């Protein structure tokens, strides 16, 4: 889907676009890797991680 960087100077809820070659494909898993955390060397706290999309197979079934 892509690589994204959280900007600590922006709002806490941030949106990132996916690559165009991912659009319209069924993706059954998303992996979140935290490479740095602006603080503690021992742990990272993620309060919420959301992924939104639609089922491309359902979208195709509505096309007449």
Describe this structure in words.
- The protein has 64 residues and is mostly loops.
- 9% of the residues lie in helices and 0% in strands.
- The protein has one helix at 56-61.
- The longest helix has 6 residues, at 56-61.
Fraction of residues in helix: under 10%
Shape, please? elongated
Rg is 16 Å
> Largest sheet, if any?
none
Q: List the uncertain runs.
A: none
Number of strands: 0
Percent range for β-strand residues: under 5%
Order of helices and strands: H
First CA to last CA: what distance? 29 Å
- The mean pLDDT is 81
Separate helix tally: 1
Coarse structural class: little secondary structure
Write the layout of secondary structure elements.
Blueprint: H1 56-61
Q: Which short descriptors sum up this protein?
A:
elongated, little secondary structure, single chain, 64 residues, 0% strand
Short description:
With 64 residues, the chain is mostly loops.
């Amino acid at each position: 889907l892509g690589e994204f960087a959280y900007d600590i100077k922006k709002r806490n809820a941030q949106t990132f676009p996916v690559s165009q070659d991912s659009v319209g494909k069924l993706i059954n898993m998303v992996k979140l890797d935290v490479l740095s955390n602006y603080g503690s060397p021992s742990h990272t706290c993620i309060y919420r991680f959301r992924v939104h999309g639609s089922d491309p197979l359902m979208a195709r079934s509505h096309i007449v």
